Amino acid sequence: MKAVLMAGGEGSRLRPLTIVRPKPMVPIVNKPVMEHVLLLLKRHGITDVIVTVQYLASVIEDYFGDGSSLGMNITYSVEEVPLGTAGSVKAVQDQLDETFLVISADALTDFDLASIIEFHRERRATATLTLYHVPNPLEYGVVIIDGEGRIRQFLEKPSWGEVFSDTVNTGIYVLEPRIFDYYEGGRPVDFSQNVFPALLQQKDRLYGYVASGYWCDVGNIQEYMRANADVLLGKVNVGPLGRELGNGIWCETDEVEIAPDAQIYGPVWLGDACKIKSGAIVRGPSVIRDFTIVDTRAQVDRSIIWRNSYIGERAEVRGAIIGRQCSLKSKAMVFEGAVVGDQTIVGEGAIIQPAVKIWPSKEIETGATVSSSLIWGSHGRRNLFGRWGVTGLVNVDLTPEFAARLAAAYGSTLAKGASVIVNRDLHRSPRMIKRAMVSGFPSTGINVIDIKSVPIPVARFITRTSPAVGGVHVQLSPLDNRVVDIKIFDGNGLDIDRKTERKIENAFFREDFRRVYFDEVGTITEQPHLADEYSRAFLRNVDADALREGRAVPIVLDYAHSPAAPILARIWPQIGIDVVSLNSAMLDERPTWRPDEFDLAISQLAAITRSLRARFGVRLDPGGEHMFVVNDRGEKVDGWRLLGAIAAMVLRDRREGIIAVPVTAPTLFDWVARRTGGRVIRTKADPAALMEAATQPGVVLAGDDQGGVIFPEFHPAMDGLYGVVKLLELLATHGATLSDELDALPAYHTATAKVPCSWDTKGRVMRLLSQQYQSSRVLNVDGIRIDLGESEWVLVLPDVDHPLFHIVAEAATGDGARALMEKYAALVSSLQH
Question: In angstroms, rounded to a whole number, what is the distance separating the alpha carbons of residues 571 and 579?
Answer without folding.
Answer: 11
